[in-house]
Specification:
This protein is α+β, with helices and mostly antiparallel strands. The chain has two domains: about 180 residues, no CATH class; about 240 residues, no CATH class. About 45% of the residues lie in helices and about 20% in strands. It has ten helices and 14 strands. The strands form three sheets. A seven-stranded antiparallel beta sheet has the order 2-6-7-1-5-4-3. It has a five-stranded mixed beta sheet with strand order 10-9-8-11-12, sandwiched between helices. A two-stranded antiparallel sheet has the order 13-14. The protein is elongated and about 95 Å long. Bound molecules: zinc ion.
Length: about 425
């Protein structure tokens, strides 16, 4: 199924380009207001409204007239798009049940936007090195504006369909809409989140603990034992080399077992869930040092030492990577979210506080008294962050493949959702 996705990036236009963007936004606004005035007069006079096709003819007239000839300086497409949107807004506005009401005249600087509907006219130049070998920002070509730099914060996948330039809070942004072929396994629609932990490898949002690496723990003692033996041998002696080989083999064995266990686990997870949300490990490793941070005071102190650490660190990384490609094979996807405060935020009232964690396994909100297992709360917060991200990324809710997600969200108020995940009993006060 083909779905539409949108990527939004901050534009970095130079001064001349900014002036052009302002000018073109002004022209689109002018066209909107002019056509709205025309339609309002017809409405008041009881004359049938014009549809887009007729409005577009007016635009051609305006552009070729002496009086409004300044419109010719801007691209015709963005002005046509303003009319298209006006046309839609008027017909929707005539419906009394529409909460938005009848469209209004546009003011300078409010909702300034330019839509470029023709993918052939938008060209992306994604090179990040210039001829001299210096880093540069990628550029997007916009008709009559030229090549505008933008901050590409993520990869753009799919076929570019259109682009919209908007101005918000003093900055220019471009939203690039793409079409991608995506098959969500519709029979097994489900979204879940994983909280990657130290005691258990991961906790699912439904409370399932996953610890496939438990069998590896038995190797820990053995490894310590073999290493001690090595330290007693004479360096570079025949015995020393022999012992060293033994340790290498043990490490290899551990790696193989871990790989195998993770393969089985991820296959099972991907069969049961279409979308899985996890914390972004790159960011996470920075926020959670072994000594603990404000976010996680001392949580990892003991566990982050020695073999346990290497098992877990590599286990997390492998787990996430396997999930990513296995989900993509099945048409699902992996969503990564920022890990900050996921274990301290109350899922019921939103209160975020280190005091919500009296000890490692317990979550108890100091504000509303909500209490649950800390890992599960973490997974829940990761899940809700993932949902937010999906919506921000412009998952087209009209589309069936994404529609289930929105439907699922709207049919569950946060409390309801939470009750379903944790069981009604989780709502009791302590
Ligand atoms: Zn609370």
């Amino acid at each position: 199924m083909v779905i539409r996705k949108a990527y939004r990036f901050r534009l970095e236009p130079d001064e001349a380009q900014q002036a052009l963007l302002h000018q073109f936004c002004g022209q689109a606004r002018f066209v909107w207001n002019k056509a709205l005035e025309l339609q309002k007069r017809r409405l008041d006079g009881g004359v049938p409204l014009l549809r887009y096709g007729d409005l577009a003819k007016y635009l051609t007239l305006w552009r070729s007239s002496e009086e409004y000839g300044f419109l010719r300086q801007g691209p015709v497409h963005t002005q046509q798009q303003a009319l298209k949107r006006l046309d839609q807004a008027i017909w929707e506005g005539l419906d009394r049940n529409n909460p938005k009401g009848f469209p209004a005249f546009r003011k300078r600087g409010v909702h300034d936007s330019l839509r470029y509907p023709d993918p052939n006219q938008i060209k992306l130049d994604l090179r990040v090195w210039d001829e001299a070998g210096r880093r540069r920002l990628p550029k997007i070509f916009l008709p009559k504006v030229g090549r505008v730099k933008f901050r590409k914060t993520r990869e753009i996948e799919g076929m570019v369909k259109n682009a919209t330039v908007t101005r918000r809070a003093g900055h220019w942004y471009v939203s690039i809409q793409v079409e991608v072929e995506q098959e969500l396994p519709l029979s097994k629609l489900s979204i879940t989140a994983l909280d990657l932990g130290v005691k258990h490898l991961a906790t699912l949002v439904d409370g399932t603990r996953i610890d496939p690496l438990f069998p590896l723990r038995r190797f820990e003692e053995k490894l310590v034992w073999e290493q001690r033996k090595l330290s007693r041998k004479k360096r570079f002696s025949r015995n020393w080399y022999q012992q060293k080989r033994r340790i290498t083999r043990l490490h290899e064995h551990i790696a193989n077992v871990r790989y195998d266990l993770l393969q089985k686990l991820t296959t099972r997870l991907c069969k049961n869930h279409a979308v899985i949300v996890v914390e972004d490990l790159k960011v996470r490793s920075m926020t959670r040092s072994a000594r603990g941070t404000v976010d996680e005071p001392g949580r990892n102190v003991r566990a982050k030492s020695g073999l346990n650490k290497s098992i877990l660190d590599q286990g997390w990384g492998m787990l996430v990577e396997m999930l990513r490609y296995k989900l993509s094979w099945r048409g699902g996807m992996l969503v990564k979210v920022a890990p900050h405060h996921t274990s301290q935020r109350c899922p019921r009232c939103g209160h975020t506080d280190p005091d919500n964690r009296p000890d490692q396994p317990t979550f108890r909100c100091v504000e509303c008294g909500f209490s649950a297992h800390a890992d599960q709360v973490g997974a829940y917060n990761i899940l809700s962050r993932g949902m937010e991200k999906l919506r921000d990324e412009g998952w087209d809710t009209a589309d069936a493949s994404a529609g289930w997600l929105e439907g699922w969200l709207s049919s569950h108020s946060p409390d309801r959702l939470f009750a379903e995940i944790f069981g009604e009993s989780c709502f009791g006060r302590i």
